[in-house]
């Protein structure tokens, strides 16, 4: 019976030693690393613009053919104006004309009636160019187009940067450097030093207008502003010595 108790006590001591040893190893192991979040930001200016717009025309109920001719004339005038401004286009996409019937509602003898009055024709197109200044001049001064009977609906500019992939690589590297600098600053009053990178994960890119506080867990790519700011975080685990 005494031998049995002895074996039970011995086994309990061994198990306790293993558990304590595991805790000790984990504590020592945790002390040998430091986790830091670095951040990098950079301002940049877009070098490419996408201009989306719609040409439109309204004609009477017996003038649909005239409407098609009018749309063709407007498109040709628009192309001529782009060429006259010296705008080089990387893409020029033109969609088919869409036609919708137009109605007026009148009241007759106390009853409301829908009366067919004509057609509205629309044509969506967009162009992509690096000549941002010239396009902005046309968009922000619509009178120039209007005087040539070019009526533009839903005009919209979107700005992009052709070297965005290189810029992303650059700021990820900068965020990693920032993380190392922060780790070194945290350890500067100890006898420990930053050693090497053990693990690293980057956050999502936030591309916003300047001085924006907007962030998203899915990332942001603002296209409405020509001037932008890109930022990213780097979650880095360093070994320390």
From TrEMBL:
Domain of life: Bacteria
Signal peptide interval: none
Entry keyword set: Membrane, Transmembrane, Transmembrane helix
Pfam hit, one: SIMPL
Name of the protein in its database record: SIMPL domain-containing protein
One example of a Gene Ontology biological process annotation: DNA damage response
UniProt cross-references to InterPro entries, sorted A to Z: 26kDa_periplasmic_antigen (IPR052022), SIMPL/DUF541 (IPR007497)
Phylogenetic classification of the source organism: Bacteria, Bacillati, Bacillota, Clostridia, Halanaerobiales
Organism: Halanaerobium salsuginis
Transmembrane segments: 6-25
Gene3D superfamilies in the cross-refs: Protein of unknown function (DUF541), domain 1, Protein of unknown function (DUF541), domain 2
